[in-house]
Specification:
Elements: E1 2-3, E2 9-10, E3 17-18, E4 24-29, E5 38-44, E6 53-55, E7 59-66, E8 68-73, E9 76-81, E10 85-88, E11 94-98, E12 104-111, E13 119-121
Antiparallel strand pairs: 1-2, 3-4, 4-5, 5-12, 6-13, 7-10, 7-12, 8-9, 8-11
């Protein structure tokens, strides 16, 4: 992403991409000009459970915008629906399962911003 002198962050045109986590990600905001946070949309297909993982030093917040699923954080499972929010502590083991009939979509707000090096597969 490119930032102009006025603090505007221009889109990078990357769009949605597949991850080894078994979901699609669209990064909405993740740049050097804003190290305190990043924002993305995750999309999990029907019947899929994401990879069990943790984020080192990163707190993640989910805000569901479509579908329903079961979020597991450190072995505790909770059903989530549209509008529900979850705060996942840094270092917590986490995954989400799409239990609905449409793709599960949610915003992922990370503080500080997400870096691939913070991702730890637990599988």
């Amino acid at each position: 992403m490119v930032v102009d002198k006025g603090g505007i962050v221009f889109a990078n045109g990357q769009g949605e991409f597949w991850t080894d986590e078994r979901c699609y990600i669209t990064e909405l905001h993740n740049c050097d000009a804003s190290p305190e946070a990043s924002l993305a949309v995750a999309r999990v297909e029907v019947g899929v459970t994401t990879q069990l993982h943790s984020l080192t030093g990163v707190i993640e917040r989910y805000v569901l915008r479509q579908g329903e699923g079961i979020l597991e954080v450190d072995g505790v499972k909770q059903k989530l629906r549209v509008g529900d929010q979850a705060v996942i502590p840094a270092g917590a083991a986490q995954r989400i399962e799409n239990t609905g009939s449409v793709d599960l979509e949610f915003y992922c707000l990370c503080t500080p911003r997400f870096f691939p090096d913070s991702y730890v597969s637990l599988e």
